[in-house]
Structures are given as C-alpha cells and as structure tokens.
Amino acid sequence: MTSNTNELTTVVTSDKNQTVKLAKALLTQARQRKKQGQTVLEGVHLIDAALRSDYPFAQILLAESAQHHAEVQQILTRLPTYISILVLSDALYQSIRSLGAGIDIMAIVNIPMPRLSMITSDCLILNDVQDSGNVGTLLRTAAAVGIDTVLCTSATAQAWSPKTLRAGMGAQFALSIYENLSVADVLNCVQIPLLATSSHTDTLIYEHDLQAPVAWIMGHEGQGVCAELMQCATPIALPQPNGQESLNVAIAGSLCLYETLRQRHYS
Fold this sequence. Notes:
alpha/beta; CATH 3.30.1330.30; Alpha/beta knot; 6-stranded parallel sheet; elongated; transferase
C-alpha cells in the first residue's frame, strides 16, 4: 500500500453533504444499511481489524481535530491511495457519530453477501437472536474457537450493524455470515447434526459426543429456538444446579462452543 497521509485541507461543515448524509443514515437505520448494502465502522479498533483482514473500504470520514492523531496517521498510512478521505468539522462529526468521545474516525464499507452453499463443517445458527450485543458476543466467540460459518435467520439482529460490530470487536471480518435466511434455507443447506440447548432433556452437554462437525442453534432471547428447527435438532441440556430459569443466549452459546472445543482438543 502507498501512504495516504497527504495534508487534508478541505473541511466539510454542512450536514447536506451526500457522504455525511449517507454515513448518518447507515449509523442509525437498519433499512438503509440493507438498501445500500453498506455499514459504518466507528473508531480505530474496528478499522484496524478490517485493515488486518485486508477488508476493502469505500470511504473514510474523520474529524478535523483527529487528522494528526498518531493512531489516525498510522491507519491512513495503511490505506490504498484510491480510498477517499473526507474531513469533517468537529461539530459536524460529533453530530453524526454514535460513539462517545474518542478518536473521531469512521469508515463506510460494503457488507459482504456470500452465496449460501451446502455446509458440512461446524457452524453456528442464530435463530432470531434479536439483541445486537448478544449477536456480537456470539460472533466473537465463534471466531475465537475457530468456527467460521454463521447462519442468521431473518429476524436476527443485523450482524453488520454498528452496535453488533462493536460487540463483535471485529470478529465479523474472520467469519462467513449468511443473513436473512428462512428456516427452510437453513434446513436445506446444513448437512451436519443440529444441536439446540433445551431444559426439557436429560442429555447433558458434557455427556454428548461433540467430536464430529455440528451445527449449534441459538434461539430468540424469550421464545428460544423455533419449533421447526427444534424438531430437527438434538436437545442438549446445560446443567443449572441452582435452578435458575435460563441462561442468557450469548452465555449459553459460548459455553456450548467452548465445550465443543474442549472435547476435541483438551479432553
């Protein structure tokens, strides 16, 4: 890559600027992210994670006061020279950002839309998990244990929304994420055993053989895994000796993924 740190002198001050309007819409509206096929990475950490994964950028926006920040300069030197950089007045940048005070830089990127094919290796299925924090945590855990395929049914929170990106800490760049799937899509393409946590079974996770490829299903925070998927899955129990009603879906999913890892590498 060639250095992209030329002095940036033109400062945008109007919220009527088309790129500014686009960034604001992408930060705040799920409908616009879906329509445009784009999202926004806010802050140095996510942009750095994208750069380390050679993820392509469409546009960089930064606040005037952040131009000469050491971490911003380090990012700019790693960008290809064809990437457009837009400098906003501090007041304008602060009016559109969704993060609090920090290093004011963001990037507009295209959302990947991989084509779904038959799945015969480990995967994670998010069945209408609606909280962005839970989705981000599950994506981060999947990436950590080496599962790189995630299937999301249509009511699942957007995997590439700014909030989910922050919760995932850049895990999205290490994953193949398929979104807006129907239950039929999932059942048609997943060729490995489906497993789902349930309180209505005596099969404890520690007693179930997880050596072969599996598809873990994590369900809606209130309603759990839908009946159609549950009918095709093996129910697995997570022990709760103190009798609590249920675990948070992100916690339950993380326990399942790490027990899978333990059985294969640390048993």
